[in-house]
């Protein structure tokens, strides 16, 4: 691969208070011949996870060790343990011990921002094209000092190198809309990481969800990149033989312990020497899995003898055989040599995320992508507008032309109650904002694309825009069809109140869903919360009559503040007649008297107090949502 004009991101020299790395870029000229990848070595790696048990899910003090004395250099890993996540510094470092060296130097704190990491489930924006996704990665992960023309050249080069030329301007695709194939999607994910030209590329089961032919083409691409000087470390489950023979180094783990680490072509001979023969027609990867699981017998065993030995004893024998093998000795010697040549730098276990672009540059690109995703996803844009228009017409038809009499009071109360309650329940869709894109956000945040505040602000601005549009449309339809107070100021206050209710309810939805991973569960929590708020809104029960030990709950009801504000806005200044056949003379009731009966402060001050309360609740919920996102501990 031609590597002139090649950009290297420096490991880290210093970090300022904003998390930005100093001295980030160094131009490297092509020295001729294939470039050398970084040497990553792992010394006595242990990783322990804290198990959760009991009803409250409290952490157990002992925990479970899932990696034990891992000693290896770059390799292919066969294991059901998330070992690649651990080696790539994508897991919580609290349970990690041992030492990781990169080119004989301690692993830098921002290693996860400098190395490439392709997750098992492709995390790319499905509503954007392949080229737009790569441009997004280039804009945020390459330093600001790199000219835009060079970033575009990098994108075009990767599209050509990854064989994506024909689909470069095709949308990746979502669960609803069809897009590119699985192999092309996987190559796009790889391209997102190759933008920074990392010397080390981690992949977590890159063949997941791909057919045999597509998986083979993806691995051939990785093999070509490895031959061009990039260190590639991956995990994979039961690859076909044409894929297995591409590996240079193989590591096999059982219960977090190594049973083989060495050249991949020598693995069959190694197991044959300890008594496990692979039949000529058997796939080596399937054979290794059978050996580890105790489903393969040695040459000295008979089939009925296998059941006598427990799986644990087989694992212990495999681990012990490897410890006494020449491959283990060679690995220890090589690691000792690396330690002797280790460069002395201050070592820290802290994990740091560094950024190559300033705050407003990140905000511009993330906001642009968010609005693109919103506009190109009719399920979240056109559908919401259509639903609000439909509901507005239905409500307007039901309460059409209210009168200034006793029925008019009832109809006004019912219409205003439905409008404010509907604004709350319609925001349940906001739960998908964080839940659906959770994996995408976590991956991009940890990789140093953008700050949490940038992502959060972009999501808030895009959702507020949509809520504003739908609230104004809905208010305009219902207000004039129902025939509410016919003054411009009253209409503007009504629209403002309905919009504020939508904002506050959306903020609460975000606060609840920010740390949830299942949309259905978050929807249940939000629905229950809104139901309790609806009870204390002021229509279903007379609030002054509620007992003191329950009355305090009304202060946490979003519909209460919204309903109180629109009632003050509508009823003040109106006079209602209560004439009937039994009361031909008729009695009159002013709107102020009715509001006083309900216990609502109907002065202008009381109106704006409700607005201030909605704004205060909105800000509080947004703060909770932001803090939940900011302190996410999930690294995958």
TrEMBL record:
Q: Which Pfam families match?
A: ABC2_membrane (PF01061), ABC2_membrane_7 (PF19055), ABC_tran (PF00005)
Q: Which InterPro entries match?
A: ABC2_TM, ABC_transporter-like_ATP-bd, ABCG_dom, ABCG_transporters, P-loop_NTPase
GO cellular component annotations, sorted alphabetically? Answer: apical plasma membrane; mitochondrial membrane
Report the Gene3D superfamilies cross-referenced here: P-loop containing nucleotide triphosphate hydrolases
Provide the protein's localization.
Answer: Apical cell membrane; Mitochondrion membrane
What EC designation does it have?
Answer: 7.6.2.2
Signal peptide positions on this chain: none
Q: Where are the transmembrane segments?
A: 382-402, 414-436, 456-482, 489-512, 518-541, 561-578, 605-627
Q: Where is the ABC transporter domain?
A: 40-280
What sort of enzyme, by top EC class, is this? translocase
Q: Main site of residence? A: membrane
- Which GO terms fall under molecular function for this chain's record? ABC-type xenobiotic transporter activity; ATP binding; ATP hydrolysis activity; efflux transmembrane transporter activity; riboflavin transmembrane transporter activity
Membrane topology reported for the UniProt record: Multi-pass membrane protein
Q: What family, per the record?
A: Belongs to the ABC transporter superfamily. ABCG family. Eye pigment precursor importer (TC 3.A.1.204) subfamily.
The name this protein carries in UniProt is ABC-type xenobiotic transporter
Q: Which organism is it from?
A: Takifugu rubripes
């Amino acid at each position: 691969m031609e590597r002139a004009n090649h950009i290297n991101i420096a490991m880290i020299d210093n970090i300022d208070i904003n998390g930005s790395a100093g001295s980030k870029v160094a131009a490297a000229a092509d020295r001729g011949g294939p470039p050398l990848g970084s040497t990553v070595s792992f010394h006595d790696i242990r990783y322990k996870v804290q198990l959760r048990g009991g009803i409250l899910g409290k952490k157990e003090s002992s925990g479970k060790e899932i990696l034990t004395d891992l000693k290896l250099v770059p390799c292919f890993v066969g294991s059901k343990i998330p070992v690649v996540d651990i080696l790539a510094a994508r897991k919580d470092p609290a349970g990690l011990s041992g030492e990781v060296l990169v080119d004989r130097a301690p692993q830098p704190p921002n290693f996860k921002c400098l190395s490439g990491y392709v997750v098992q489930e492709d995390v790319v924006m499905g509503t954007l094209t392949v080229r737009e996704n790569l441009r997004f990665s280039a804009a945020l992960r390459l330093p600001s000092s790199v000219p835009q023309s060079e970033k575009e050249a990098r994108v075009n080069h990767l599209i050509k190198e990854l064989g994506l030329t024909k689909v470069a301007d095709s949308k990746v695709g979502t669960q609803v809309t069809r897009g590119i194939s699985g192999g092309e999607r996987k190559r796009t994910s790889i391209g997102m990481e190759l933008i920074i030209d990392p010397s080390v590329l981690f992949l977590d089961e890159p063949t997941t969800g791909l057919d045999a032919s597509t998986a083979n083409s993806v691995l051939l691409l990785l093999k070509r990149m490895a031959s061009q000087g990039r260190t590639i470390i991956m995990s994979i489950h039961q690859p076909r033989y044409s894929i297995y023979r591409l590996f240079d180094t193989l590591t096999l783990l059982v219960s977090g312990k190594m049973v083989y680490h060495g050249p991949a072509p020598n693995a069959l001979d190694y197991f044959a020497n300890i008594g496990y023969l692979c039949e000529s027609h058997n796939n080596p990867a399937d054979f290794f899995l059978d050996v580890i699981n105790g489903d393969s017998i040695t040459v000295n065993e008979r089939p009925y003898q296998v059941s006598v030995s427990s799986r644990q004893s087989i694992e212990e024998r495999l681990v012990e055989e490897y410890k006494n093998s020449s491959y283990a000795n060679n690995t220890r010697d090589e690691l000792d040599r690396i330690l002797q040549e280790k460069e002395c730098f201050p070592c820290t276990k802290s994990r740091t995320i560094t950024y190559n672009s300033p705050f407003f540059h990140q905000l511009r690109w993330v906001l642009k992508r968010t609005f693109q995703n919103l506009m190109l996803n009719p399920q979240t844009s056109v559908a919401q507008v259509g639903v609000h228009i439909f509901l507005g017409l239905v409500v307007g038809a039901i309460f059409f032309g209210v009168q200034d009499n006793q029925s008019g009071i009832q109809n006004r109360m019912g219409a205003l109650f439905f409008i404010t309650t509907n604004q709350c329940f319609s925001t349940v869709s906001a739960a998908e904002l964080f839940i659906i894109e959770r994996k995408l956000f976590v991956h991009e945040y940890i990789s140093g694309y953008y700050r949490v505040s940038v992502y959060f602000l972009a999501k808030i601005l895009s959702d507020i825009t949509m809520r504003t549009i739908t609230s104004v449309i809905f208010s305009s339809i219902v207000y004039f069809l129902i025939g509410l107070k016919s003054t411009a100021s009253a209409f503007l206050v009504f629209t403002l109140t309905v919009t504020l209710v939508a904002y506050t309810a959306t903020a609460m939805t975000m606060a609840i869903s920010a740390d949830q991973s299942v949309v259905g569960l978050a929807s249940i929590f939000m629905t229950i919360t809104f139901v309790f708020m609806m009870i204390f809104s002021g229509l279903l029960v007379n609030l002054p009559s509620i007992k003191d030990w329950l009355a305090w709950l009304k202060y946490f009801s979003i519909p209460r503040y919204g309903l109180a504000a629109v009632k003050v806005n509508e009823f003040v200044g109106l006079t209602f007649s209560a004439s009937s056949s039994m009361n031909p003379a008729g009695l009159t009731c002013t709107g102020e008297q009715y509001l006083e009966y309900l216990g609502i402060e109907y002065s202008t001050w009381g109106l704006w107090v409700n607005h201030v309360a909605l704004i205060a609740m909105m800000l509080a919920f947004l703060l909770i949502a932001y803090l939940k996102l900011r302190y996410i501990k999930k690294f995958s």
